[in-house]
Amino acid sequence: MSGVNTDVLGEKIVEKLKSIFDPEIPVDIYELGLIYDVFVNEKHDVKILMTLTSPNCPVAETLPVEVEEKVRSIDEVRNAEVEITFDPPWTQDMMSEEAKLELGFL
Fold it and tell me: In angstroms, rounded to a whole number, what is the distance separating the alpha carbons of residues 70 and 52?
């Protein structure tokens, strides 16, 4: 496990998160602004604080599991846990400029 600092691991995690797409919107969950925070401790345990576009999101059950599995698939990650929050609630303002451009909001 040694040799990879948490910043490099954080970048790998973000890269992995950018491979996960919201099924209703053709933009990845990171650019959509659904990821609020990524915590990595010195033991390479990862905790991801994220939201969904709405509490009734059709993937509310499966998306957090997919996020955990994909992050856990990174060799240096020991464990991954996703916590869902709706505080603050997601809005279109949380999307990156890239996502807004992709969806025609700019």
Answer: 17
